[in-house]
Amino acid sequence: MDSHGQDEQRVVWAVVETDIGPLMLAATRSGLVNVVFHATDAVRERALERLAARFGSAPVADPGAPVLVEAIRQLRAYFAGERRDFELPLDWSLISGFNRRVLRELASGVPYGSVVGYGDLAGRVGQPGGAQAVGMAMGANPLPVVVPCHRVVESDGGIGGFGGGLETKRQLLALEGVLPAPLF
Question: Does domain 97-175 have CATH number 3.40.50.2000?
Fold first, then answer.
């Protein structure tokens, strides 16, 4: 691989403190590639190892990288209630096929302050009856919060599962006005 090809695969990362705990953000030249919840040292190290295996080189801590600076700015504005949509370049290379189709539909078709059922989202991507597969796609989402998997809920009114934990999902839905704010 030439040096240009290696540069294309360079991954930079930073951690941002948020209302739901520390988030690790990772980006390639193409855009934001990974958001990791609860980015304690151990969680962050596992995520960095996965990214190194996928992209062929160790990610570099670079909170000054322009895409990360902008992602951090937008996330802070979102948690402050000042932003409803993210306008960031996204690198979809960690996900493919059905999961990518579902997540792209979610990102473009389920606005702030609204929710969609797993089955409804399956129907939107041409897979009626695929609610369970949509649930798997949500669990595989490499870009949570930015690609709002917290907005996908059960048809019976339950909030469903969430990779960041149910309390985190409740906090995100409360921030967007879908659920009442927690009383703590």
Answer: no
What are the CA-CA distances from residue 140 to residues 1, 2, 70, 178, 182 (Å)?
29, 31, 24, 23, 27
pTM for this one?
0.91
Query: Is the per-residue pLDDT at 5 higher than 80?
Result: no
How far CA 9 is from CA of 85, 91, 166, in Å, comes to 27, 11, 33
Angle of CA points 115, 178, 109, to nearest 5°? 25
Cβ neighbours of residue 115 under 8 Å, at least 6 residues apart?
151, 152, 153, 173, 178
pLDDT higher than 60, residue 4: no
Catalytic pick among 75, 149, 152, 175: 149
Q: Is 23 a catalytic residue?
A: no
- Sorted by where each begins, the domain ranges of the chain are 3-79, 97-175
Fold classified for 3-79: Double Stranded RNA Binding Domain (3.30.160)
CA distance 94 to 55: 10
